[in-house]
Design goal:
InterPro entries: EamA_dom (IPR000620), EmrE-like (IPR037185)
Organism: Halanaerobium praevalens (strain ATCC 33744 / DSM 2228 / GSL)
Distance between the termini: 39 Å
Pfam family, one: EamA
Family: Belongs to the EamA transporter family.
Number of helices: 13
Protein name: EamA domain-containing protein
Strand content: under 5%
Radius of gyration: 19 Å
Largest sheet: none
């Protein structure tokens, strides 16, 4: 088996672990803030020995204000997404969160002055239509599912924001220390949030703590680690497009394991959204390649 096939197999494994997040969150019987806090806390505790052994010199980056901001945005993302699963179907939640690449393209257009290509515009329009289709299907539950859909959509925006703002820090830091510092600040903010809202940190039972640990080990450490390892061998765009399979896997698992019914409007809207993200990402990638070639000619 050649190395590229091995990377694709590894990427598939990582994608599977990522797709377990929605299922595990649905099974947890704890406030969203607590679920997010322990997911991050356990991740940080597991990573701490490796950070201290290999990257102790990078500890000065804890004093940089940008990881603080990015950690805060990541904490908000987790709170919104985990909360959304309490109000809407898992399928709806993961599909709306998948809109993150489109929000990234829009942020790049407004704040990084990067051109918005025709294909990206069509992709965004398709995604908006898909969102409307899903919301129409949920209209009969106006105060419930629509609110959950809005939370998931907001979570996608904050995911795009923390990735967009974090780009400057990532240029200075290796991926691992950056991730460790980011997770540490997210944990701190989630802990502060739980304290301010007077949510107890204990008393959730062994089952829930195992779920929190599973979230840290599976989707967070294994899933995200494989994704970022794959970027060394495959283009970022290929990995990003591969991740579009996450809503499909999560929805299938929710149907098989949790007997969660998938509405026709969710399937139809999901096709529009994922198709729009695919189209926008592909056009965005091709434009970036053209820009690199033009830059090379100028130099």
């Amino acid at each position: 088996m050649d190395s590229k096939k091995k990377i694709y197999i590894l990427l598939t494994i990582g994608l599977f672990f990522l797709s377990l997040a929605g299922i595990l969150i649905k099974l947890a019987e704890a406030p969203p803030l607590i679920t997010a806090f322990y997911r991050m806390l356990f991740s940080v505790l597991i990573l701490t020995p490796f950070f201290l052994l290999k990257y102790r010199s990078k500890i000065r980056y804890f004093l940089d204000y940008r990881p603080v901001v990015v950690g805060f945005l990541l904490a908000i993302h987790f709170i919104l997404w985990i909360s959304s699963i309490q109000y809407t179907d898992i399928s709806n939640s993961v599909i709306f969160v998948a809109l993150q690449p489109l929000f990234t393209i829009i942020l790049e257009y407004f704040f990084a002055r990067e051109d918005l290509q025709k294909g990206a515009v069509i992709g965004i329009i398709m995604a908006v239509l898909g969102s409307v289709i899903i919301s129409i299907g949920d209209f009969y539950q106006l105060g419930d599912k629509l609110f959950g859909n809005f939370l998931a959509l907001s979570a996608a925006f904050f995911a795009a924001a923390y990735l967009f703002i974090g780009r400057g820090v990532r240029k200075k830091l290796d991926y691992f220390p950056y991730l460790y510092i980011l997770y540490s600040y997210a944990t701190v903010f989630l802990g502060i949030g739980a304290y301010l809202f007077k949510i107890p940190f204990t008393g959730y039972g062994v089952k829930n703590y195992f779920i929190f640990l599973a979230l840290a080990l599976g989707p967070t450490l294994v899933g995200h680690s494989i994704l970022n390892y794959s970027v060394r061998f495959l283009s970022t765009s290929v990995v990003s497009l591969f991740v579009l399979g996450e809503p499909i896997i999560t929805t299938t698992l929710a149907w098989l394991l949790l007997k969660e019914e998938v509405m026709l409007t969710t399937i139809l809207g999901g096709v529009f959204i994922l198709g729009g993200i695919y189209l926008a990402s592909v056009y965005n990638y091709h434009q970036q390649q053209k820009d690199k070639k033009l830059q090379g000619v100028k130099n």
